[in-house]
Amino acid sequence: MFFAFILLLLITASGIAVTYFYDRDLPFFGRVCAGIVLGQVLFALVGLAFGCLIGMSPNIAVLSALVTALPLLALTQKQIKNSAQADFFVFLESIKNFVLHPVLGRAIAVAIYIWLIVLLWMFFERAMLNTAGGIGTGSPHNTGDISFHLQAIYGFLNGQNFPPQNPSYAGAKFTYPFMVDLVAAMLTIVGAKISQAMFWQNMLLVIALIGLMHRFTFKLTNNKFAAQIAPLILLFSGGFGFLLFFSSALESSSDFFDLLMKMPDNYTIRSESSWRWGNSLTVLFMTQRSILLGLPLALIILTKVWEIFSNSKLKIQDSKLSENITEKRTISIFNFPFLILNYQTIIVGLLAGTLPLVHAHSFAVVMGMTGCLALMSWRKWREWASFFIAAAVVSVPELLWAMKNSASKIGNFFNWQFGWDSFNTNFVLFWLKNTGFFIPLLIAAIIFLIVKSLKLKSQTSNEESLEDQLPASNHLKLLLFWLPFALCFIVPNVARLAPWIWDNIKVLIYWFTVSIPLVALLIAQIWQEGKSGKILTVALLIGLTLSGWLDVWRIASKQMEYQVFSRDAVLLAGQARQKLAPDAIVMSAPVFYSPAALMGRRWFLGFTAHLWTHGIDAVPRENQLREIYRGGANSERLLLENNIGYIVVSPQEYEYTVVNDNFLNRFPIVAQAGEYRLLQVK
């Protein structure tokens, strides 16, 4: 793990260096958070290029890290070096002041965030477990997802899966965002265990998400308290499910704290019910790992989009002022200060262009919402043109590659369906129970912003300076900035945006994330209303986060453990990784717990539920698989036509379909563990 840590530090440092090219006033900790994300994105892009050209190896991982580190050369420039040193010393000074001159409120905030990091550590340790020689997870939502991500990681690591094919559907393009798993594979190939690579990746990215959510909220609201509570609302999202917990506590004979350690169910999402919103940590950030990289990257971009939209920190009045700004806080590698504005937006546009491979839904939301904001502020067409042209330069080749020869059918992704996943319950009651106080507070925040804007505008006389008019303007701009993101709530509630309707949450989460600053600002205003305001604030924060905390705690406190792969399945897969050619095609029962998921080879047909959610029609290939196991007249022809080199025979196949032992016994056994056999097709 030592070399993997060095690699992570190197690419993070490179990401920090990149921040000096697009954000001149980002605090040091904010640069570290952005650097974690940008470093991994750049590392994945370089690794993908080298993988397609040469293949995966420890040398390629190290070379990719060295190429990723090239932005560090910018530190040789005096301006950047001085800015970096100044940022670091300011950071050290703030720590010194905190220790020498403690303030109660700040100490409480630090204590809460230390507790949060400890809880997240316990939580992400449960993502992948060693279960008596097998592989398991501590989350009921992660059983299928951990299998899919392990398929992707082993495919890069042992199967030389470049250009990437779908690990569950041999021969098809890998259109699911895979960059986060490619980074995990490169960390593993330099010495980390897969579980370690995933854990440290998750921890670093969630810390980055906290810092970037704090930064995003502060830029929008200019309120420190709002910025401090915003990450908590995001991470512990939930609704009124905590009422179910208290109902269980009243009905149970167990002690209240005993019930906390033995909770019978989830409190934000339940199958076959109208509890569907879930908690972001339990149903998104642990399970769908790509969004844990995509959302922080989107926040970096949207923070800059806000600056363009609100005209914050972007005006350069004259050449003398621009020179002073350049010397103090901005970087221009071309030494033309008047080009700084376009250069910064170009950099952010290039970052936005990487999103299709990082997280496709984030790309769609960022570009769609930014397009709406550009139309609303069309006079800044130069900045918007710089952003969109730069984004297109990177994203268009990625999109063309992903769409060419893809097995996913676009028509499977879109249809009309009202109410999202509400199980035909009352629309208003569904969203009220699933999000709790959030939507009422959001409505109140919108009203507050409108009233505040009108009130401040009426109080502003014509003789007052532009600076005096800014508060009213900022309230209105904050509301206008949020307005397009309301579409991220409206559209998923009237249309199905994926084969599985629940996947609309990948768009809904952006409505929620961008709405949090408004709600946090309102709560911050309530906090200022004396003792009663502080009591109400605490009550609202508990109400907004308790259900999510209960679900997170249920996983973090080790109340559950699910075995995904048995010991024999792991042993068979290990033997296969040693013996099979990297491009071999393996056939097994299409279940997520098959040993084929761990072999790192092309899987003829993987878990059909995953394929369905990706828009792939698996029925024809599934019929062929059943025909082969049945030993029918066409079995040998189908094996040849599909270039299937190996067949798994285990209890899973006997449970899944009819297995003709007489037909399969003609093939030699090349690996075996208990009842699990791997047959070679001659």
Q: Calculate the mean pLDDT score and round it.
A: 91
Radius of gyration: 26 Å
Lateral strand order in the biggest sheet: 7-6-8-10-9
How many DSSP E strands?
10
Number of helices: 30
Which word captures the global form? Answer: globular
- Unreliable parts: 313-341, 461-470
Largest sheet: 5 strands, mixed
What this model shows, in words?
There is one protein chain. With 682 residues, the protein is mainly alpha-helical. Helices cover 63% and strands 5% of the residues. The chain has 30 helices and ten strands. The chain has helices at 2-19, 28-53, 58-68, 78-100, 104-124, 143-158, 179-189, 194-221, 224-235, 242-251, 256-261, 280-285, 289-310, 319-328, 340-353, 355-358, 360-376, 381-403, 427-435, 438-459, 466-482, 487-490, 505-527, 530-556, 567-579, 608-613, 619-630, 635-641, 651-656, 661-664, and strands spanning 129-131, 134-137, 415-416, 495-496, 562-565, 585-587, 602-603, 646-649, 669-673, 676-680. A five-stranded mixed β-sheet has the order 7-6-8-10-9. A hairpin with a 2-residue loop joins strand 1 and strand 2. Helix 13 (289-310) runs antiparallel to helix 15 (340-353) and helix 27 crosses helix 28 (635-641). The longest helix is centred in the first third of the chain and has 28 residues, at 194-221.
